[in-house]
Amino acid sequence: MQKIENAIERAIKFRANGIFVSETFDLARKQATKAIENGLKPFPIVVKDCFLTKDAPTTCASQMLANYIPPTTSTVVDRIVRKGGCIIGKTNMDEFCMGTSSQLGHFGPVKSNIRSEGGIEEDWMIPGGSSGGSAVAVQTGIADVALGSDTGGSTRNPAAFNGIFGLKPTYGVLSRQGLIPLVNSLDAPSIFARSAEECWDFLDKTRGLDDNDSTSIDLPESENLDSLKNLRVGVPIEYHNEKLSENAWKIWNHAINVLKNEGAEIFEISLPHTKYSLSCYSVIAAADVASNMARYDSVAYGHRSSNNSSTHEMYAESRSESLNTVVRRRILAGNYFLMKKYRSKYYEKALKIRRLINDEIINSFNNLDVIITPTASGKPPKYSELRDTLYSKEDDDDYFTQAANLAGIPSISVPSTQNENRENYPIAVQIMGNRLNDRLVCDVARMIHTKF
C-alpha cells in the first residue's frame, strides 16, 4: 500500500505538468486493498484517457466527452487491475488521439519533465504524442508502467522524447475492446515502462484472446533470448534521410555497432515504399476518423450546444463547439476522401500502397530476425518551436514509426544511455520484429540498452 501512497504523492508533486485529466487516488487505494486481500502485490499504473473505465471519466481529452463516465471497462485495463494494477489517474493526451505533441487536449497541454538548457520558465520540451501524459507519468516515477495507444507512433514517439521504453505489440495481441477507436485497423494498446522487462511483463499479464474483440489473437509461447550472436539485423537505407539529425544518426549507428560487436549479423536492406507511409497513413486515418467520429452526434451522449433551433443546427453547433481544429479538419478530409468521385483516387490507392508497405516489411523477415531504425528524427522540440504550427504541422517523426502500424508488427523504442549523445537529450532507436515476435523485440531491446 505504501507504494501506492508514494505514487499519489508524486502525482500531486507533478500536477503542474498536466499529466492527468482525472486523478483517481481513492480508486487506486480501493484497488490496492482488494489486491492485497487477493494475495497480490499492488503496483501503480496510469491509463491513457481513451480507454473506457467504468469507475472514472473517459474523456479522450475532449469537451465532447468532458463528463462521460462509461458503463464498462476496457479488457486490457480490467486484466491489469486483476493482476494488482492500481489506477492513479487517467492521463492527458491530444484530443481523440489526433496529434503528436500532447498539446492539443481540451484540458491543457502536457509538459515534459525534461527541461531545455537555457529555456525560459514558460517554455518546455514537447513530450510527444498522442500518449504524452502516460509517458511523463512513467518518466517522473508516478507509475511503474503506463497504458497508451499507438496508431502511427503515439507510444514510441513520446517514449523516445522522455527517455523511457515504449512497446507497440503485434496488432491484436492486446485486446482493443474498450479502446475508443481512431483507426480501427491500426490502433494498438501499447505500453510505457522504464525497462524492456517491465514492458514484456505488462504484455504477458494482459495478452490473449478476447471474446469481445474479433481482431484479438493469441501470442505463442517463446523462449527467452540469451545471446545476440547470429541474430540477423536489417538496417533500411531509407531511414537515413534528410529528416534525421546528425545526433540521432550517431546513436542509431552506435546501436548497430553494439549489435555487431555482440555477434549479430548486419544486413543493409531497402524498404522503398516507406517514403509513402506518411501520405498513406494520413488518407486512411482521415477516412476512419470521419466514420468513427460520426457517433458523436450529441443526441445519445456528449456535449450539446444550447442552439436547439433544429436538429441540424444542434448537431453542427455541438460538434463545432466541442471538437478542436485538428479533429474537425480530419473529419472533413476523411469525408472528402470517401466521396464517390474521389474514393478510388485517394482512399483505395492508399489501401493498395499500404499492402505494398506491408508485403515489403513482412517479406524482409524471410531473411531477418529484427530491423533497427531511429524512433524519431532527433531530440524533442521546445513548445516555443511548435507553438504556431501545432494545429497544422504533420510531424516528420511519424515517418520512422508508421510503417510498423501499417504492417501490424511489434516495435519497441529503446532509449540511449547517452554514451554517444552529445546533446544530452533523449534519443532512441526502434527495434521491429515479425508478427508475433513480441518477446524477441523485447529481449533484443533489453540486451542492447545498457550497451549504447
Automatic annotation (TrEMBL):
Active-site annotation: 48 (charge relay system), 130 (charge relay system), 154 (acyl-ester intermediate)
GO cellular component, one term: mitochondrion
UniProt domain Amidase: residue ranges: 4-442
One MF annotation (Gene Ontology) recorded for this entry: ATP binding
GO terms for biological process, alphabetical: glutaminyl-tRNAGln biosynthesis via transamidation; mitochondrial translation
Gene3D superfamilies reported in the protein's UniProt record: Amidase signature (AS) domain (3.90.1300.10)
Pfam families recorded: Amidase (PF01425)
InterPro entries, per database record: Amidase, Amidase_dom, AS_sf, GatA
Catalytic function, reaction form: L-glutamyl-tRNA(Gln) + L-glutamine + ATP + H2O = L-glutaminyl-tRNA(Gln) + L-glutamate + ADP + phosphate + H(+)
Location relative to the cell: Mitochondrion
Family: Belongs to the amidase family. GatA subfamily.
The protein's assembly and partners: Subunit of the heterotrimeric GatCAB amidotransferase (AdT) complex, composed of A, B and C subunits.
Stored HAMAP family: GatA
The protein, known as: Glutamyl-tRNA(Gln) amidotransferase subunit A, mitochondrial
Species: Caenorhabditis angaria
Classification of source organism: Eukaryota, Metazoa, Ecdysozoa, Nematoda, Chromadorea
